[in-house]
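Thread amino acids onto this structure.
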């Protein structure tokens, strides 16, 4: 081994070697200082401790020979005992516990020293920020109030360690926002003295858990929790509105008027309903009968046959604590000549329909509501001259039996007086026809309430006119205002009473099937409109306007191009329900001619 190799080996092994013959040489290695890993600056909130891991190494000193220490230059922030080394020298950690009441900055020095007196030093900065302390408050006791009342002024105090009184915000929370919405919290006061008034939603009762929230600018929030009980007050029962009822005539048939009742805090079976007539001479209280149970009730009115008049009927609902509610409506019977006797050819109290086939044969279908219960040919059963057409029915000779009305293609009018389905005689009208061609009688109604049936005509060009009659004699003729429909494709199909003013109104059908009306005051148009719905469907034409179900409102019978029959039951101008006549088809060759 040469001298260079011996020297390198001595450095590696620390042995004493001979550098040459007779020349001994002793070599030693210098001790190394420990190393300490970089410590970044730290921050924490006031009173919140933190812990830092330390990285310490020493190449020639075992861990048992190392010593760690830490010191701070701000002893107010980090007094004695605030800095502590833990975890041993294998995984050392520096625990820092700032003074609870202090905040600020301190330089911290960490020293690692070995047994040779060598050391490593690291410094870092600790910043302690102020901790947000939530506001302090006093409490609010649980509250109990009655429905539709507010609480008294509920006072409480507020404070905050870091914030001014004025910077504290108030808000409210409710577990039952239906009873107590956010808008129900009404705050007042200033400084540390505050108050709140709770105004629950009107008509509501029940319980809610409430919280008044006090929030500082840093987001710290303290809730003041309390319960609110709202005691319900006894509430009145309820009753639905009943619309005025106008009957064109009465034969003593019962009129059923449905209505509903309710009560927020009483059982429905405890509700008692009574009815009172304002004019017992026309409609005695004994003619008013109440049926039904629960929420659904029915007033059945049985007016005297042959009596006209009006009475205000008051319905009163009383609950089990004698709380009451009332509603009233007008009940009228317009007993004029046109309506005194419906088209009842078999005397069963239900209106019937008259038919003519394409060969001129005449028949009557006996109905009860929409159900066919029989039929018969008239006697005579044939019209004779096919230039005459059956167009309507009415009582023209005042014998309280319906007669048949015909119109010739040249415009002449004539009637068969009837006894049931048997002809008794012939009536002529004076004059027999309109003063110019092209006018056809469509419907009849008592225009001015004088007890006489008047005639409504429509010309092919859309014009409208009326004959004011005295029996079968023309008293005066008049035009309607306006005197024509805007579009001649609108054809008059019948008359009805669509409101309670006692004046007849007119019904129209467009060639495309659309249904409309004119509400009249005498002969003056006051309101046009469309029925709801306005179209019965393709191929359906109005052939009868009559009160089939005896509810006091005229209904519409339609005939389809294939002969089928259906009925729209109306409430005013609105479809209430629709049904086919049962059976629904008299045959494609039979045309329903009235009444309308």
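Threaded sequence (596 positions):
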């Amino acid at each position: 081994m040469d001298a260079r190799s011996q020297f390198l080996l001595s450095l590696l092994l620390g042995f004493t070697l001979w550098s040459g013959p007779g020349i001994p040489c002793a070599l030693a290695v210098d001790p190394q200082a420990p190393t300490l890993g970089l410590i970044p600056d730290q921050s924490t909130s006031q009173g919140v401790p933190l812990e830092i891991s330390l990285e310490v190494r020493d190449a020639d000193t075992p861990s048992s020979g190392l010593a760690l220490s830490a010191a701070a230059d701000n002893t107010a922030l980090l007094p004695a005992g605030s800095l502590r080394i833990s975890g041993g020298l294998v995984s050392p950690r520096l625990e820092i516990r700032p003074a609870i009441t202090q905040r600020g900055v301190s330089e911290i020095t960490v020293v690692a020293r070995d047994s040779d007196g060598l050391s490593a030093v690291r410094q870092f900065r600790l910043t302690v920020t102020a901790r947000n302390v939530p506001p302090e408050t006093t409490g609010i006791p649980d509250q109990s109030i009655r429905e539709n009342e507010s609480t008294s002024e509920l006072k409480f105090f507020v404070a905050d360690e870091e914030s001014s009184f004025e910077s504290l915000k108030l808000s409210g929370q409710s577990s039952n926002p239906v009873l107590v919405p956010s808008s129900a919290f009404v705050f007042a006061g200033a400084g540390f003295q505050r108050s709140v008034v709770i105004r629950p939603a009107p008509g509501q009762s029940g319980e809610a858990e409430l919280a008044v929230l006090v929030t500082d600018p840093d987001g710290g929030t303290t809730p003041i929790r309390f319960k609110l009980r709202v005691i319900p007050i006894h509430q009145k029962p309820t009753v639905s509105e009943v619309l005025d009822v106008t009957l064109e005539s009465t034969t003593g048939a019962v009129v059923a008027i449905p209505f509903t009742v309710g009560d927020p805090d009483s059982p429905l079976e405890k509700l008692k309903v009574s009815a009172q007539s304002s004019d017992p001479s026309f409609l005695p209280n004994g003619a008013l009968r109440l049926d039904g149970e629960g929420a659904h009730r029915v007033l059945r009115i049985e007016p005297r046959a042959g009596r006209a008049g009006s009475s205000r009927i008051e319905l009163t609902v009383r609950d089990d604590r004698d709380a009451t509610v009332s509603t009233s409506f007008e009940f009228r019977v317009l007993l004029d000549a046109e309506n005194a006797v419906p088209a009842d050819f078999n005397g069963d109290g239900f209106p019937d329909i008259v038919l003519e086939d394409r060969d001129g044969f005449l028949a009557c279908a006996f109905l009860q509501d929409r159900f066919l219960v029989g039929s018969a040919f008239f006697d005579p059963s044939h019209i004779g001259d096919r230039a005459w057409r059956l167009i309507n029915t009415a009582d023209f000779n005042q014998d309280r039996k319906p007669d048949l009305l015909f119109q010739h293609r040249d415009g002449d009018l004539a009637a068969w007086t009837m006894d049931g389905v048997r002809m008794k005689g012939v009536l002529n009208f004076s004059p027999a026809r309109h003063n110019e061609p092209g006018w056809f009688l469509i419907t009849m109604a008592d225009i001015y309430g004088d007890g006489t049936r008047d005639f409504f005509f429509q010309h092919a060009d859309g014009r409208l006119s009326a004959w004011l009659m005295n029996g079968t004699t023309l008293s005066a003729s008049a035009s309607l205002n306006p005197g024509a429909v805007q579009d001649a494709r609108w054809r008059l199909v019948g008359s009805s009473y669509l409101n309670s003013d006692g004046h007849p109104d007119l019904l129209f059908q467009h060639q495309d099937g659309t249904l409309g009306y004119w509400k009249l005051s005498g002969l003056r148009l006051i309101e046009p409109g469309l029925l709801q719905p306005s179209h019965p469907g393709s191929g359906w034409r109005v052939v009868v306007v009559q009160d089939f179900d005896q509810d006091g409102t005229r209904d519409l019978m339609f005939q389809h191009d294939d002969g089928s029959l259906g009925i729209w039951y109306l409430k005013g101008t609105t479809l209430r329900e629709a049904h086919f006549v049962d059976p629904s088809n008299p045959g494609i060759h039979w045309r329903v001619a009235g009444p309308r």
